[in-house]
Amino acid sequence: MSERKTTNIILFSGDYDKAMAAYIIANGAAAYDHDVTIFHTFWGLNALRKEEMVPVKKGFMEKMFGGMMPRGADKLGLSNMNFMGMGPKMIKGVMKKHNAMPLPDLIDMAREQDIKLVACTMTMDLLGLHKDELLEEIEYAGVAAYLADAENGNVNLFI
Amino acid sequence: MKADKVLDAKGLACPMPIVKTRKAIKEIEAGQILEVQTTDKGAKSDLTAWAKSTGHELLDSNEEKDVFTFWIKKG
Question: Which residues are in the UPF0033 domain (chain B) (predicted)?
Answer without folding.
Answer: 7-31
